From TrEMBL:
GO cellular component: cytosol
Record GO terms (molecular function): glucosamine-6-phosphate deaminase activity; identical protein binding; isomerase activity
Family according to the record: Belongs to the glucosamine/galactosamine-6-phosphate isomerase family.
Function noted in UniProt: Catalyzes the reversible conversion of alpha-D-glucosamine 6-phosphate (GlcN-6P) into beta-D-fructose 6-phosphate (Fru-6P) and ammonium ion, a regulatory reaction step in de novo uridine diphosphate-N-acetyl-alpha-D-glucosamine (UDP-GlcNAc) biosynthesis via hexosamine pathway.
Isomerase in keyword set: yes
Reaction equation(s) it catalyzes: alpha-D-glucosamine 6-phosphate + H2O = beta-D-fructose 6-phosphate + NH4(+)
Source organism of this protein record: Sodiomyces alkalinus (strain CBS 110278 / VKM F-3762 / F11) (Alkaliphilic filamentous fungus)
Protein name: Glucosamine-6-phosphate isomerase
Residues represented out of the complete protein: 5 to 247 of 375
Length: 243
């Protein structure tokens, strides 16, 4: 727990940088990083970019897999997760573009796209560290309430609460918010060697309580991290108000 959101972000950025450096990734055995979108990780990305520019860290041998992507908006749409990731992170560091993996929400066969994504994660050696945020309904990636805890990458219908939450990115117009997404599953995340979730703001306080203090259950999918051997929640004080 850190007092302010900035301090939580800086803890996470330092931690990720430390993990990558300690790993000493090579082309043959890159560091495989799972990544989220959303407001919460933006300052983590900014801090990682600063570390890169200061020569503290290199992303040359880092391979990334993003958690999720909307279905039905073009890849270059200003609110696609593809655009988000390049705008906030990838364009500013030395990661080879071929090392970046983001689900294609416009693939002609979405089920095949999801299966290929799971296979690509395995081929890369599995995810070393999955960074996550959470939705205010406790979802991790787009694993909405009711998702199987054994789920893998698939198409998911967004919960109405999520559509409302994300309308802020679509001119506050819910009609513009996609209703479907591709998302890694809860089990895909649990398979990572390590998971770090950043949870900031009072808007997440109920979700954090349900995920940490209730039993593991499919209505608050972040609660699945209780089953992981190496999971860390980094929260600011506001997010802990209900604990
Ligand atoms: C979306 C993403 C999640 C993210 C959530 C929270 O639903 N699919 O991965 O955790 O937004 O976003 P924010 O950090 O903006 O609250």
């Amino acid at each position: 727990i850190r007092e302010k959101p900035d301090e939580a972000s800086s803890y996470v950025a330092d931690y990720i940088a430390h993990r990558i450096k300690e790993f000493k990734p090579t082309r043959e055995r890159p560091f495989v990083l799972g990544l989220p979108t959303g407001g919460s990780p933006i300052s983590v990305y900014q801090l990682l970019v600063e570390k890169y520019k200061a020569g503290e860290i290199s992303f040359e041998n880092v391979v990334t897999f993003n958690m999720d992507e909307y279905v039905g908006i073009p890849r270059d749409h200003p609110q696609s997760y593809h655009t988000f990731m390049w705008r906030h992170f990838f364009s500013h560091v030395n990661i080879p573009p071929t090392n970046v993996h983001i689900l294609n929400g416009n693939a002609p066969d979405l089920a095949a796209e999801c299966d290929a994504y799971e296979a690509a994660i395995v081929a890369a050696g599995g995810i070393d560290l999955f960074l996550a945020g959470i939705g205010s309904d406790g979802h991790i990636a787009f694993n909405e309430p009711g998702s199987s805890l054994a789920s893998r990458t698939r198409v998911k219908t967004l919960a109405y609460d999520t559509v409302l939450d994300n309308a802020r990115f679509f001119d506050d117009d819910i009609a513009q918010v996609p209703r479907l997404a591709l998302t890694v599953g809860v089990q895909t995340i649990l398979d990572a060697r390590e998971v770090v979730a950043i949870v900031v703001g009072a808007r997440k306080a109920v979700a954090l309580r349900e995920c940490l203090e209730s039993s593991v259950n499919h209505m608050w999918t972040l609660s699945a991290l209780q089953l992981h051997r190496h999971a860390t929640i980094v929260a600011d004080e506001d997010a802990t108000l209900e604990l």
